[in-house]
Amino acid sequence: MPAVDAPDPVRGTGSRLLPVLPLDDLCLFPGASLALVVDRPAALSAAQLATRVGGQLLALARREAYTGPRDVHAVGTVAAILSMQALSPLEHRVELDGLSRARAETLLGVEVLVAEAVPLDEGDEGEESGPAVEALARYLHAHADLRAFLEGQRRSAGAMSWVNLACQHLPITASARQKLLEASAPERCLKISRGLDALLRKEQTT
Questions:
Q1: Rounded to two decimals, what is the model's pTM?
Q2: Which CATH number among 2.30.130.40, 1.20.1440.20, 3.40.50.2000, 3.40.640.10 corresponds to the domain 16-119?
Q3: N or C: lower Cβ tally within 10 Å for the chain?
Q4: What is d(CA 74, CA 55) in angstroms, rounded to the nearest whole number?
């Protein structure tokens, strides 16, 4: 399937109905990209539906105690489908671009879900982004491979782009990643600056 033109994100407006793409053991953050192989029939149907109704969907992480399609976290990220390529009749490689956070106020459907997505204000990271970027620089200095990877994934030169990429790709638990996504931009910066330094100290002493 050819690449889908990504419409501009809608920020600060009312709720929207968007197909839901459940994510396993990961989150998508605003300003970050994500490429994944979609092989669950319901998830594939949701991605295909999104390409027919504007090219956007709501990426929601599955809960750890997953028992059914509705066991997803309420806070996720509105994403544009940049490309969708068939690998087999049951597998597609989907590339997403995170646009903005949103909360699923209502879930419709049984297997293929559609969410009433309400935008969440990121807030102004202000002075909190500086210490977060500095902590990230210290961590990446000790992890050259990760630094090269994040540089290839970066979509913006802004400080929050670096912070969000770190939140998405650092070796932390899925629950910790979800908590970072649920936090506003200034809270996320504060959490990641403290967490990165603690993670680096732990790695250096083991």
A1: 0.85
A2: 2.30.130.40
A3: C
A4: 21
